[in-house]
Specification:
alpha+beta, three-stranded mixed β-sheet, GMP Synthetase, Chain A, domain 3
Length: 125
């Protein structure tokens, strides 16, 4: 299948799931600070891997993933209504921690830069 079409379908799935997270899903386990970062759809449109970023501690992340997995049928039905496809991909949710890793790395860089600035002040002082 055409890669452009697969990418377009993946983006539509990402947009629809993002909308569902903010408006439709009422499961108390799902953290309100959850966002869809990426969707990867297989070439045969059999599966869609949905990556979500969840702001919170480990328990909140686990609870949110459980809530999303239990809502999988509803989400798939909503995707089917939105997209005109013969087969709707089976969806799987994955935790995407790349944003948190980026924040952590930024803090480390900031810390090293401050320490470096202090050392330079001492040696010049």
């Amino acid at each position: 299948m055409n890669i452009k079409r697969i990418n377009r379908i993946s983006e539509e799935i990402r947009r629809k799931v993002s909308d569902l997270l903010t408006t439709e899903l009422k499961d108390p386990r799902i953290n309100s600070m959850t966002s869809v970062t990426k969707v990867e759809t297989t070439k045969d449109l059999g599966y869609a891997n949905i990556y979500v970023s969840i702001l919170g501690d480990k328990k909140e992340k686990e609870d949110t993933l459980k809530g999303l997995k239990s809502a999988k049928g509803f989400i798939r039905k909503e995707i089917a209504e939105e997209l005109d496809l013969r087969y709707i991909p089976e969806i799987t949710f994955h935790l995407d921690e790349s944003i948190e890793q980026g924040i952590y790395m930024s803090k480390l860089i900031e810390k090293v830069a401050k320490e470096d600035a202090k050392k330079r002040e001492r040696s010049n002082g």
